[in-house]
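User: I'm curious what two different proteins look like when written out as structure tokens. Can you demonstrate?

Assistant: Sure. I'll show them one after the other, since each token string lines up with its own sequence. Here's the first protein:
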Amino acid sequence: MKLLVISHACVTPINQDFWSFVMHKYGWNIDLVVPETWRGEYGLVAAQRWKSFTGRIWKLPVLFSGSVPLHIYRARLDKVIEKVDPDVVYVHHEPYGLATFQWYLANKIAKSVPIGFFSWQNILKNYPLPIQVGEQWVYRNSSFAFVGSKGAEEVLREKGYKGPVYYKPGFVNLDIYKPYPEEARKIRRELGVEDKYVIGFVGRLVREKGVVTLVKALGLLDDRLDWVCFLSERETC
């Protein structure tokens, strides 16, 4: 199996770890397309290779770097598909994204192999007409779709997608991300919270990630529960 994967998220090396797992477990050949650089919330990031990913990486320039729905690739994408000659193309990106439409069009021009997308969107949103037209075209030309949740599938169906859907929840490598009890105790001692109930939050500090819900929930906790929240080692919330 030759798989071509397009993922702006994989500009961050750790996000390539899933594809490394797939390669080694199933013996697939995987080519990965990533932006040459990506402007995130913490500055400009240059694409790098994850240590265990051994497939080819195509680093392509993009316009509107940092915008998930609006970024597009500045390259002849049909030529990339022709050179890779994949059996399947997988665009790890929402169906309404301009880059998704761009890769689907390139696939039509180059080979017309099976192609699919990914969606996390579990809230129904209406976009401007040009975006809706492109999104519906993507739906009609998709051989498959992956979703991160049941809610995301429901939104896809409500928007009119009729093809097969498969679940692909978030991937965590437990060889890397695992409990370190001794390190945790050391940090608790340094922060002076050994006897407190510590609540962890992983994610961007924005409303969409549920941080407001977390703060409201903390306000409902029993007063007898001695808890503390830290944004960093020096700043309490």
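Here's a second, unrelated protein for contrast:
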Amino acid sequence: MKIALFGASGMIGSRVTAEAAGRGLDITGITRSGSDVPGAARSIKGDMADAEFDARIAAEHDIIVSTTGPSRTGGDHQEWLDALKTLAENSGNTRIFVVGGAGSLWVGDTMLKDTEGFPAIYKAESETGTRALELLRTGNWSPWTLISPAPEIAPGERTGSYKTELEVPAGDAISAEDFAVAMVDEIVEPKHIDVRFTVAN
């Protein structure tokens, strides 16, 4: 299986690369700088906003994974949404697997991002993540999957154990390592097509 991974040098992307490589999967690590991605079979420079590049990557791989996200340093979030749309529009029949946020998960009849006490620092990113999910749901592309982590995700231990849910938090936290395990499990044995699911320890 050939996997194209946008954002391969980030916290999630690097762990997905390591997990997938450890299982003998063929990874193309894609970053904006083109820097070497440990564990990837090849490391290349690329941008989701480049339609021609996206189409070529889709034709050469079995699945495209995006572990990218909107800017956390004041950049334009619409730029990332537009890039995600470009990727989806040019993916052809190749499955796209997108990492989303936890803010759009439901707690009763309210999204997590709208609950009392939700950290203001994550509000804008969560609003953008919600729009990304709606983009995938309402577009004319398939197959796609979006995975949301538990509300708390950080580097930690790889236990290989996790649980999943649809639309609601599966728990309070997950390590980035186990999040990668869940992602690679879903890549190898797809169970969530054209839906959003979430994972937690």
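A detail about the second structure: The chain has a mean pLDDT of 96.
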